[in-house]
Amino acid sequence: MNLDKPPVFGDITAASERLAGKAVQTPLLESPALNARAGGRILIKPENLQRMGAFKFRGAYNAISRLDPEKWPGGVVTCSSGNHAGGVAEAARLCSLTATIVMPRDAPAIKISRTHAAGAEIVTYDRIKGNREQIAADISNERGACFIPPYDHPHIIAGQGTVGLELMRQAEALGARPDCLLTPCGGGGLSAGLALAVKHFHPGIEVIAVEPEGFDDHARSLLSGRREKNDALAGSICDALLAPMPGELTFQINSRLLSGALSVSDDEVREAIRYAFNELKLVLEPGGAVALAALLSGRMDAKNRTIAVVLSGGNIDGDQFADILAGCHGIWGENSYLSSQCPSIRSDFRYWARSGPNKSAWRLPVRDPTQTLGQCMSTWFEVASYLRQRSMRPVFIVASRFLKSKHNLDQSLCPMSYFDWPA
Predict the structure, then answer these.
(1) N or C: which terminal CB in the chain sees fewer CB atoms within 10 Å?
(2) Are the C-beta atoms of residues 349 and 382 closer than 8 Å to each other?
(3) Sign (positive or negative) of CA dihedral 310, 314, 315, 318
(4) Which alpha helices (H) appear in 207-363, and where do they start and end?
(5) pTM above threshold 0.85
(6) Quick check: 255 pLDDT over 50?
(7) Does domain 57-147 fall into CATH 3.40.50.1100?
(8) What is the DSSP letter of 421?
(9) Percentage of the residues of the chain whose pLDDT score is greater than 90
(10) Residue 227: how many CA atoms within 13 Å on its side-chain side?
C-alpha cells in the first residue's frame, strides 16, 4: 500500500484478515422499541463492545502489527484524547512494542487508566496551549519511535473500515439492506473507512457524518470543498470528536463518498446516552453517542427507512455517566474550561450550582473538604465567573463547618447555601 494515498476496498478486506482473532466482531443489534420510536428499521453496530471500549483498536492494530521492531527501537508514539491512545497501547502490547501516548490533561480518567493498564507511558499536555503533534514528533525523533496517527493514515482508515465490512455482512444475514448509515465523525478516519466498505456492497447507500455542535468542520468542508478548521479546541462533552480539522487523506475519501453531515447538541447527546442505557442496555461515551443522538432528535428522518447507526465508543467516567443519567450537567467534564483552567477542582468534595430558567443541576468537584473556605475561594469565584458569563446564577452548597472561616463572602457574586458535612 502506498502510504501517501487513501486505501481502497481491498485494503479493508486485508485488514479484516489481519484483525481476525484480535478484534471483537461486534454484533449488529435491532430494538423493537427503537424501531417504533424512529418509524423505521434501525440497525445498531455497538463498537463500545470492542476491545478497549472503542472502534479505534481496529485501525491501531492494523497499522502496528505491520511494523518491524528492529526498525523502531523506541516502539510507537501517538497523540490522542483517549480512544486511539487505548487502541495503540493495546495493539503495541500484543505486538511486544513499547508505546508512548501524548494525552490532554483533561482526558477522561477511564481513558487514561485503560491506556496506562495496557502498559503505555503517558505524556500529558494542555489541550488549549500545547501542540500535541509537535510533542509526539519530538518523542519520535528522540527515541526512534514510529508515529501512529489517530486517523490520517491508510492503515488506520482501512482498519476502521472493517466496521463497515462486518456491518454489511451482518445486515445481509438479517435480510436487511441499509439505505443510510450514521457515523460519529472527528478526524474522519471511521467515516472514511465505513464509506469505502459499505459503498462497495451498496453504492447507493447514504453515509452521513455526525459531529458535535460547534465542531462541524466536516459539514463546512463538504460545502466549501476544502478542509475547514474549527474555531475552538474544546467546549463539548464529546471529547473523542474534537479534531481541529478533517484529515488530508480522510477528506479525500469523505469529500467523494459522504452524503452530508449533521450536528447535534450536548443535550441531545446526553439524551442519547440515557436512551442507550435505559432502552438498549448499552453504555456510551458522548462521542460514541452522536449518531444515535441524530436519530433520536429527529435530525435524521428514519420513517420507513433502514438506517444503520454506529456507536463508536463507551469509555465514559462513572461520575459523568451518573450525572447524565440523573439529568445533571457536569461542566467539570473533559474539555471544559474548568478542567483546563482549574485542575484542582477534581476531588471527592462536591458542590452544586443551580442555574438557568429550568433550574438544571450542575455538579462540580472542588478542593479537598479538609481545606479551609479561604483556600477554596479562588476556585469558587472562578466557577461563578464562568457561570455568570453564560447568564447563569450559581448557588454553592457548602459544608456548614466552613462557616467558621472569617472570610467575607460577596453574596451577590457567589450566593451560598449550607449543609452539615459528616465528621
Answers:
(1) C
(2) no
(3) positive
(4) 217-224, 248-257, 266-275, 290-296, 318-325, 337-341
(5) no
(6) yes
(7) yes
(8) P
(9) 67
(10) 15
